[in-house]
Amino acid sequence: MRSNVVVLPRRQIVAYPDLRAAAGYAQVEHTAHDAEPIVLPLAADDPDLFAVRASGSSMDGGDAPLRDGDWAVMRYARGLPADALVNRAVLAQLPGDAEGGLYQIKRLLRHGAAWSLASDNPDGPTFFELDGVVPIARLEHVVRPEDLCSSVGTVVGDLSAAFGINVTPTSGRHDGHLFVFIDRKGMLEAPDRVRFAPRGTRPAETAFVLAEAAQGNWRYCGVGRGEDGVWTMPSVDHATWKRWGDGRDVSRELPAGALSRAQEACDALLALPEAERWIEQPGGARANLVGRAGKGGLRIEGSFKPRTVSLIDLGWVVAASVDVAERGGLLDEERVNRARYLEGTPKGSTRWIDTQWALAAWTKIAPSLP
């Protein structure tokens, strides 16, 4: 269950809340007041290393992407020759803002006699005018929050052993890492969202989210990314949502674009010639399309009372079909319900009959959609 966990020993180094604080420390060579210790996996103690959160997506690309919220472990550039920085990601100070400097993590490239600071993400900026640019530190390696702990869904008894740091089940920061412990009803505002306002804010900060389980254990819910005190993480399982959530819905949030695609499918089905307005399940059950439902879905009838295949039902088939296209496998009822419903949801809580008819509708019309 711990296949992704970083196995290097955990060591304490100094961390900074943003690039300006890190650059200020490196330049004046004293500990800034907003520096704080953090425990990260490191091969050896090294006083020339420090950590800073990556903020933004400009370096999210290439062979070793630096994502928003990742820890960038940097080495001070003082004393390093220029060749040690070429083609490496560096923390650099550029002239230009009201406080005297603009701080960026960019890749330092040489083009003959010219230099540039480039983003690894093709959509990010590149700086060609480097007069007054000061390389402050070199990126040594990236630590992803997801790689510091067990797989999502793991039930943890010994928190300190599981995370390799000193942790008690109290929401807040432990050894530089933010933890959110779900231990009261209503903390879960949605299956993938928990509310907690930490003391002080940190740009691009992430949180390890855990929910109380039986016998004093904790179920690891994944890495949360926050905004305005709400942390978004992978959806919890059905049992966790029922215990700590505030709502009856057992469905995940429909991916963006799936609902509009479902509407296109409904429109195309209802535009078919009257003789073709039918759908059929693999077992041979057939239903006629009798019109549009009140909220945009389909009204169908057959050897049963008229019923509705909602846009949401069809939208989840669309979402599952995208997942099949990306990952392979079969588009079937199990695949749709696995995408739609929380892990462990009993079949009686699902719309399994309408899932089958939504699959039949999508299978008929999808090949003819643009």
Explain what you see:
The protein has about 375 residues and is α+β, with helices and mostly antiparallel strands. About 20% of the residues lie in helices and about 30% in strands. It is built from seven helices and 21 strands. It has helices at about 20-30, 160-165, 240-245, 260-270, 310-325, 335-340, 350-365, and strands spanning about 10-15, 35-40, 50-55, 70-75, 90-95, 100-110, 115-120, 125, 135-145, 155, 170-175, 175-180, 190, 195, 205-210, 220-225, 230, 280, 285-290, 300, 305-310. The strands form three sheets. It has a nine-stranded mixed β-sheet with strand order 2-1-3-4-9-5-6-7-8. Strands 10, 11, 12, 13, 14, 15, 16 and 17 form an eight-stranded mixed β-sheet that branches. It has a four-stranded antiparallel β-sheet with strand order 18-19-20-21. Helix 5 packs across helix 7. The two termini are about 40 Å apart.
Strand-helix topology:
Blueprint: E1 10-16, H1 19-28, E2 36-41, E3 49-53, E4 71-76, E5 89-94, E6 102-111, E7 114-118, E8 126-127, E9 134-143, E10 155-156, H2 159-163, E11 172-174, E12 177-182, E13 188-190, E14 193-195, E15 206-212, E16 218-227, E17 230-232, H3 238-244, H4 258-270, E18 278-280, E19 286-292, E20 298-301, E21 307-309, H5 311-327, H6 333-340, H7 352-365
Parallel strand pairs: 1-3, 12-15
Antiparallel strand pairs: 1-2, 3-4, 4-9, 5-6, 5-9, 6-7, 7-8, 10-16, 11-12, 13-14, 14-17, 15-16, 16-17, 18-19, 19-20, 20-21
Helix pairs in contact: 4-5, 4-7, 5-6, 5-7
